[in-house]
């Protein structure tokens, strides 16, 4: 590919999370040509970073990689990672995307993923793929089942010692790599840009991110993952095995004062899941979930919740108002019990926050699809055409139109692919 | 038993087996000593290389296999990892990319069958055995070609509710011929009984009308109302459905009448039976509303106790003014709604039905639906007091939490109960003229016992699986413990059924609201389109094959065959004149091997799972003492 090139295809999928991958596969299996652009270094979205997934407790990597692999090797799918979508315009029957591929400082065509650069790099940085709990190098393959298996250099941390360039067997390291612009012309687009979580920082009631041993749910996913940072569950501040762990639900959701009035939809279920996995990893630990309502609505979810209760996980009805540092690294959780007994404080060794869910991408200034009051992409026929956006020919799937668990995201991704297929056909292509 | 030394010299066997063992990022290697298994595998007969990787399915893992095949190091592949249902296709496609035949590969499941159930030495021992067996079989694998069959570009949708209507329309737009089969004279299904719907308050009849119009005006869709499937045979891409149409007896459907779209269908108003030739079937047979037992929260005992669908219907017919709701001339000064009736039942707490069965699932839609109904009442009749008795409020989706907030603002009074401490509904005896009283230990106020006198109780009754037992037995469909139809895997194959070419749409699978049912329907449609749009499809070649020289035409196999029509006797011309011989119809063969077991001459065998291959597997399992591994 050369700078400034234009690529044409039937469908452009923006975002290579589970929703985007499923949409792309469902289109490509019908022989439509698909391009996926992903802003991250690897496809897979949040799901590839999870430990095990409710309600079946399958290992998440194990069921994400089949979809990643089939998309990556599909004859009708081309994937571009590390991309910035600059502009997306739609005009009767066609869409046009201007995209910049950011420099990895590694030539993707030459890199064979041998990791020699990573092993030789002297600079250690916290590994964002492991919740920052362990270190990685300034140049690295993002994670072991990333696709593509291409190294990327983090220019912020690199000290330009030249080791990686010297050791690379294929001469792939390129300190002067430039961003690369290209254009995609497609008939239709599916937006599957997913979600991100709110941060602890900026939430004084939860300690502003300054209380040790208060972690986010995504960090807990890494602690629980079979190939996680410690290979077991340890408390980050001192490496102690926690005896008492608490989950704080709706930490930022269903709360106008924190900007998110809606329910983040999957946090009840992942908290229950993590609690179950924890009780397997730490059989002696006491595990509590502070909640307002348990929203276990999907197929098999209520049964999953009842199993967790039967396993002895403590469910405490109450709204947590304050989280503070306590003695010996433990965390004080102040909550108002819902039964009217008033405000109580309990100490725990480790606290997990089920933070709110926000859209990962805002179309503002890039694409004219409308967003709703909740900032997620608006759907114009939410009941009988849930994947239709305000622009004809642009469809939406997965968490991009509001928090959705994997099962619902996959179902919606199939639906978006169906509508997009029919749109392509209606354009006479 | 075969002497393994001899096995090594067996010329038919591959001497270039590659064994690829996965750590599964700890899922396997935490329990199985993977490197020990690799060392053992290296010594198995015919094994050229044995390698490991932290994720065999990842690109670097697949690359190991591809490189070895390309370099001629191996010509047979054994992967030892998770269940083949997850990654068989991944590895087959890797092998194809290396330019080899995808069927020269066998799979050992050392995760679900080993590391998830065994620990320590036992796990490693069993993993070695399974890998040994797989190498035994792999040595005898032959390249195979998939079976190619024509596929009709035609789909049948069973059920004309929201999901069926949506599926039919998008399939037709995709260019397939569609037959929609609905057993009642109406389209719209259960939703036809709803008024305005959560979360947005749209008029449901308008939604149905829009969907129905899209179906009725489409020339590629034939709608058969008053019709049911009474016969089913064939195979994926080529199914035959026997469809019986009966005369409508309107009284039978009086109960269904709400805001229905009465539609007579494309079939004449006469009883008929016809054969529909189709490529795939989308099941959109829906749900039925839970009917409370007599006495459950006073149901049947007090006429002031209604189910949610009954209440929705009565509310839609209200034409009183004033600020208090009136139903059938009765003023409703106070009413209670009770959540989770017939849903979220817990063993030991709730009473089982006559078959010893409980609905343990959440019905997903009733929280939003009843809050929407409560808001409708409060916003029109602010003086009607509403008590909402709930376990958890499940307003999870977009626009749903607003319903809850709005209900609170509308001064609906929320009271919370535990599953084990359900409220009771009884005749009011406090001397006032309220008909009923509801008693609850309210979890929001120190579990105080509260009694509220009311004029009406509405039970938020949930969904139960529709009765499709006829289709289940005809099509051999799997049903879950919740009695809804069961998908293959909630994430990997969420709308697929284990019977190839049969897909699931809407509430036939699980409780869903309208929007989710439409997504499920369109997702089922896209799978149908992928399957049929090419006009042909490829099936796994693991089917029986007859050695015509050995076959003596006894027909024992035909009698033993489990699939209709998969085996037939033909007249074959041989040097002895015309002789009876067995012949396999590959597309119909299940590959079950029932025929292999009964053939007196060993003339019939399964491709890819031959008796010899089984023997080789068993030999390898018991061979370790001999080959000293
Ligand atoms: C802690 C936690 C645990 C969870 N556990 C479970 C579970 O056990 N079971 C379950 O069912 N669900 C679980 N979930 C929910 C699950 O993560 C989501 O359902 C799923 O990830 C949604 O998939 P998606 O593809 O819509 O979004 P995402 O996974 O967010 O993927 C979106 C993709 O789009 C990319 N992208 C965004 N913007 C752009 C852009 N402008 N250009 C290009 N690419 C872009 C992103 O980088 C990302 O790769 C969990 C969530 C969390 C937070
Ligand atoms: C009380 C209540 C309130 C609700 N409120 C809301 C709401 O406010 N908002 C919302 O979004 N959702 C609501 N729902 C959910 C909504 O009703 C469903 O999502 C929707 O009706 C599901 O449609 P379906 O097509 O899957 O099933 P169904 O509506 O059950 O349709 C199935 C169709 O298949 C037919 N059929 C069944 N078996 C056969 C057979 N063997 N052969 C031929 N035809 C067959 C049936 O006759 C029926 O027409 C509510 C549900 C209930 C029970
Ligand atoms: S950049 Fe070079 S050294 Fe680093 S992984 Fe790629 S090929 Fe190996
Ligand atoms: S040049 Fe940068 S990335 Fe490469 S080895 Fe040195 S510090 Fe690491
Ligand atoms: S899913 Fe549960 S924890 Fe998450 S916002 Fe909703 S109610 Fe709160
Ligand atoms: S949706 Fe609400 S009322 Fe219905 S079963 Fe679930 S929790 Fe109960």
- Overall domain count of chain B: 4
Main β-sheet, spatial strand arrangement of chain B: 11-7-6-16-29
CATH architecture of the largest domain in chain A: 3-Layer(bba) Sandwich
Order of helices and strands of chain A: EHEEEHEEEHEEEEHEEEHEHEHEEEEEEH
Q: Give the mean pLDDT of chain A.
A: 95
The N- and C-terminal alpha carbons of chain A lie at a distance of 25 Å
Under CATH, the homologous superfamily of the largest domain in chain A reads FAD/NAD(P)-binding domain
Could you say how many structural domains of chain A there are in total? 3
- Overall mean pLDDT of chain B stands at 92
Looking at the structure, the CATH topology of the largest domain in chain A is FAD/NAD(P)-binding domain
State the gist of this model.
The complex is a heterodimer of chains A (429) and B (629). By secondary structure, chain A is of the alpha/beta class.
Overview of this protein structure:
The complex is a heterodimer of chains A (429) and B (629). With 429 residues, chain A is α/β, with parallel strands linked by helices. Chain A folds into three domains: 6-102 and 179-194 and 360-426, FAD/NAD(P)-binding domain, CATH 3.50.50.60; 116-167, no CATH class; 198-357, 3-Layer(bba) Sandwich (FAD/NAD(P)-binding domain). Chain A has helices at residues 18-28, 60-73, 116-120, 163-167, 217-224, 267-281, 301-310, 406-426, and strands at residues 6-14, 34-37, 52-53, 58-59, 77-80, 83-91, 94-101, 124-126, 135-137, 139-140, 152-153, 180-191, 195-197, 214-216, 244-251, 286-291, 314-325, 331-337, 342-348, 350-355, 357-359, 394-396. In chain A, the strands form six sheets. In chain A, strands 1, 2, 5, 6, 7, 12 and 22 form a seven-stranded mixed beta sheet that branches. A seven-stranded mixed beta sheet of chain A has the order 14-20-15-16-17-18-19. In chain A, strands 3-4 form a two-stranded antiparallel ribbon. In chain A, helix 1 (18-28) runs parallel beside helix 8 (406-426). The two termini of chain A are 25 Å apart. The model of chain A has no long low-confidence stretch (mean pLDDT 95). Chain B has four domains: 1-145, Rossmann fold; 154-286 and 466-536, FAD/NAD(P)-binding domain (3-Layer(bba) Sandwich), CATH 3.50.50; 290-462, FAD/NAD(P)-binding domain (3-Layer(bba) Sandwich); 543-606, Alpha-Beta Plaits, CATH 3.30.70. Chain B is globular, with a radius of gyration of 31 Å. In chain B, the strands form twelve sheets. Chain B has a five-stranded parallel beta sheet, with helices on one face. Chain B has a five-stranded parallel beta sheet with strand order 18-27-21-22-23. The longest helix of chain B has 19 residues, at 514-532. With 629 residues, chain B is an alpha/beta fold. In chain B, 28% of the residues lie in helices and 26% in strands. Chain B has 17 helices and 34 strands. In chain B, helix 7 (162-173) packs parallel to helix 13 (514-532). The interface between A and B is large, with 79 and 87 residues. The complex binds flavin-adenine dinucleotide (2 copies) and iron/sulfur cluster (SF4) (4 copies). One iron/sulfur cluster is lined by residues 120-123, 138-139, 153, 158-164 of chain A.
């Amino acid at each position: 590919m050369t700078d400034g090139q234009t690529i044409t295809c039937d469908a452009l999928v923006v975002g290579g999370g589970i929703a985007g991958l499923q949409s792309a596969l469902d289109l490509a299996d019908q022989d439509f040509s698909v391009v996926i652009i992903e802003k991250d270094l690897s496809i897979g979205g949040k799901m590839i970073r999870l430990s095990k997934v409710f309600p079946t407790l399958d290992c998440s990597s194990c069921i994400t990689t089949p979809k990643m692999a089939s998309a990556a090797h599909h004859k009708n799918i081309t994937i571009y990672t590390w991309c910035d979508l600059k502009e997306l315009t739609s005009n009767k029957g066609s869409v046009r995307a201007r995209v910049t591929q950011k420099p990895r400082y590694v030539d993707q065509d030459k890199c064979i993923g041998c990791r020699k650069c990573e092993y030789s790099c002297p600079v250690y940085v916290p590994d964002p793929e492991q919740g920052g709990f362990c270190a990685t190098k300034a140049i690295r393959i993002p994670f072991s089942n990333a696709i593509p298996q291409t190294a990327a250099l983090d220019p912020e941390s690199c000290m330009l010692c030249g080791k990686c360039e010297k050791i690379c067997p294929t001469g792939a390291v390129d300190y002067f790599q430039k961003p690369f612009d290209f254009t995609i012309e497609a008939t239709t687009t599916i937006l599957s840009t997913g979600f991100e979580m709110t941060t602890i920082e900026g939430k004084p009631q939860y300690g502003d991110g300054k209380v040790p041993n208060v972690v986010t749910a995504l960090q807990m996913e890494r602690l629980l993952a079979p190939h996680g940072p410690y290979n077991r569950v340890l408390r980050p501040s001192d490496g102690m095995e926690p005896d008492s762990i608490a989950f704080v639900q709706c930490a930022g959701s269903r709360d106008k004062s924190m900007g998110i009035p809606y329910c983040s939809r999957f946090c009840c279920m992942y908290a229950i899941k993590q609690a179950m996995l924890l009780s397997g990893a730490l059989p002696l630990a006491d595990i509590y979930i502070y909640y307002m309502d348990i929203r276990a609505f999907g197929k098999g979810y209520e049964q999953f919740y009842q199993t967790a209760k039967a396993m002895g996980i403590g469910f405490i009805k109450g709204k947590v108002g304050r989280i503070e540092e306590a003695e010996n690294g433990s965390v004080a959780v102040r909550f108002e019990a819902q039964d009217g007994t008033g405000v109580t404080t309990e100490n725990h060794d480790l606290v997990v926050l089920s933070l709110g869910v926000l859209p990962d991408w805002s179309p503002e200034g890039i694409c004219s699809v409308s967003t709703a009051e909740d900032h997620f992409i608006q759907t114009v026929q939410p009941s009988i055409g849930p994947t239709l956006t305000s622009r004809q020919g642009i469809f939406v799937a997965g968490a991009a139109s509001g928090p959705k668990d994997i099962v619902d995201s996959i179902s919606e991704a199939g639906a978006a692919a169906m509508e997009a297929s029919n749109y392509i056909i209606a354009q006479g292509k | 038993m075969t002497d393994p030394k001899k096995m090594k010299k067996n010329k038919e066997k591959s001497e270039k087996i590659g064994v690829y063992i996965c750590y599964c990022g700890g899922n396997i290697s935490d329990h199985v000593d993977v490197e020990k298994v690799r060392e053992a595998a290296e010594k198995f007969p015919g094994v050229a290389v044995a390698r490991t990787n932290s994720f065999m399915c990842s690109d670097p893992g697949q690359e190991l296999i591809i490189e070895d095949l390309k370099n001629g190091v191996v010509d047979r592949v054994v992967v030892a990892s998770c269940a083949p249902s997850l990654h068989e296709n991944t590895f087959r496609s890797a092998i194809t990319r290396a330019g080899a035949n995808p069927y020269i590969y066998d799979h050992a499941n050392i995760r679900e069958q080993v590391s998830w159930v065994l620990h320590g030495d036992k796990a490693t021992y069993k993993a070695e055995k399974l890998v040994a067996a797989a190498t035994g079989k792999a040595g005898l694998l032959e390249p195979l070609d998939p079976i190619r069959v024509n596929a009709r570009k035609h789909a049948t949708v069973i059920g004309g509710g929201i999901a069926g209507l949506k599926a039919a329309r998008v399939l037709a737009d995709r260019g397939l011929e569609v037959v929609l089969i609905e057993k009642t004279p109406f389209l719209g299904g259960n939703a036809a009984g709803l008024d305005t719907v959560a979360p947005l308050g749209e008029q449901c009849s308008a939604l149905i009308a829009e969907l129905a119009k899209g179906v009725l005006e489409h020339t590629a869709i034939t709608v058969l109302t008053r019709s049911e499937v009474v016969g089913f045979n064939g195979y994926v891409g080529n199914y035959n459905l026997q469809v019986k149409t009966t005369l409508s007896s309107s009284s039978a459907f009086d109960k269904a009448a709400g805001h229905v779209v009465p539609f007579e269908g494309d079939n004449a108003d006469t009883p008929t039976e016809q054969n529909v030739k189709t490529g795939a079937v989308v099941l959109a047979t829906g749900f039925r509303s839970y009917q409370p037992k007599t006495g459950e929260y006073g149901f049947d005992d007090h006429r002031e106790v209604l189910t949610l669908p009954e209440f929705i219907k009565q509310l839609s017919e209200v034409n009183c003014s004033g600020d208090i709701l009136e139903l059938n001339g009765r003023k409703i000064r106070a009413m209670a709604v009770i959540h989770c009736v017939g849903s979220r039942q817990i063993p030991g707490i709730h009473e089982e039905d006559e078959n010893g069965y409980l609905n343990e699932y959440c019905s997903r839609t009733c929280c939003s639906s009843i809050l929407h109904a409560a808001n409708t009442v409060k916003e029109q009749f602010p003086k009607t007091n509403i008590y909402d008795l709930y376990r958890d409020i499940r307003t999870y989706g977009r626009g749903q939490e607003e319903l809850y907030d709005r209900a609170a603002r509308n001064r609906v009074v929320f009271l919370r109960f535990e599953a084990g401490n359900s409220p009771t509904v009884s005749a009011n005896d406090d001397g006032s003229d309220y008909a009923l009283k509801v008693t609850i230990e309210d979890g929001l106020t120190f579990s105080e016992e509260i009694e509220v006198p009311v004029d009406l109780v509405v039970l938020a009754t949930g969904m139960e699986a529709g009765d499709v037992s006829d289709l289940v037995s005809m099509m051999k469909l799997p049903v879950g413990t919740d009695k809804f139809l069961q998908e293959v895997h909630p994430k990997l194959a969420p709308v697929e059924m284990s019977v190839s070419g049969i897909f699931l749409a809407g509430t036939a699978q699980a409780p869903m609201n309208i929007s989710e049912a439409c997504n499920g329907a369109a997702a089922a449609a896209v799978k149908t389109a992928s399957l049929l749009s090419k006009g042909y499809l490829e099936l796994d070649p693991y089917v029986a094959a007859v050695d015509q020289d050995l076959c003596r035409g006894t027909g024992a196999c035909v009698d033993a065959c489990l699939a209709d029509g998969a085996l037939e006797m033909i007249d074959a011309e041989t040097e002895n004149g015309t002789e009876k011989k067995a012949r396999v119809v590959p597309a119909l063969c299940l590959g079950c091997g029932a025929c292999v077991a009964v053939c007196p001459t060993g003339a019939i065998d399964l491709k890819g799972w031959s008796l010899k291959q089984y023997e080789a597997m068993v030999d390898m399992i018991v061979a370790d003492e001999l080959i000293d591994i």
